[in-house]
Amino acid sequence: MAGLRDARSLAAVLGCGLILTAYSTAQAAPPVSSGEQLPVTGRSVPADSGQLSEHNREWVMTQPPQTQAEFLLGAAINHDQGATGMITKMVDGWRGKLHYTKKFDDLQMTALYSNDLRVRAAAIEINLAVYNLSKTNETAERLMASADKTPSYRPFALWELGMLGNRGAEPDKIRDFIRTFLNNSDEKTRHWAVEGLAHLGMEETIKDFVEVLHSDPSLEVRERAGCSLAKSGMFTREQRMLAVPELIEVGEDATLDTTTRSWVYQALREITNEHIGNDPTAWRNWWVISGQKRRDEFRRGDQWSVLGNN
To answer: Does residue 169 fall inside a structural domain?
Structure first.
C-alpha cells in the first residue's frame, strides 16, 4: 500500500530511530569570529532566532495545501518555533486535499523520530490528513473491522489505528484490539502491531513491549519492540523509565540469545543515559543503589535534573 513501507525495509532504514535532526538543546557555543573556521563538533551554534520567519509565514499562506503541509512539517523537524502551531491550526482544512508523495513520506519518517514529541505528533496529524482519516470513534471502528476481515490490510490498519488512538479516538479500545495481534502467527502482523502500539504511546503497553522483546520468535519483531522502548513511538521518557526494572530482569536471563541481549542493554542505556556495559550485575547494582530513586524522581516530573536536558 502506498505510503506504508515493507516491514523489513522500514526496520532496516529506521533502525532504533537513528534518523535524527541536526538539533541540540545544549548551551550555545561562543560566537565565532569573522574568518574563523566553524568547528563541526562541540556545542550548538545558533544560525538565527529559531523562529519561523515572517517571510515564510506569509509565503506559506499563498501555497496549495500539499506544499503548506510539507513545508511546515519540514520546519517542525527543524524546530522552527511556530511551525507546529500552524500545523495544528491548518490541518483540519487540509483533509481531502492532501495525497501521499515521496517527499511527504521522507519528511514523515524523519519527523516520527524527532527528539521532540510535539514534532512526532505533528507528523501523525498530517498523516491522518493525508489518508483523510477523521479522528473519530467511527473511523477507529471501521479500521478495526477492516483489519479483522482482511489480513492484507492489517499492516496499514494497525499503523493508523495507533495514530488515531494517540490523537484521542478510542485509545483504550484500540490498545486492546492491537494487543490481540501480538501473538498472531504472521510475523508481519506482529511487527505492525508493535508499531501501532508504539504510536499509541500508552503506559499500559510497556509490559507488552518487554514481553515481545524477550519472547517473540522473530528477531525482527524483537528488534522493533526494543527500539520502541528505547526511542520510537510516542512514549515519553518518563514512561520509558518504567521499563527499566523489567529490562534488567530480561538481561539476566541466561537463555537469551546474544543479539537480543545486546538490544536489551542498548535500550537500557538509551532510556537511562547511563554508560554501563552489557553486565547484568552492574545494572542490577545500579538499580538497587540509584535507579529506583531516579525513576521515582522522574515520575514526580523532575526530568531535567534526573536525566539531563539533552
So the answer is: no
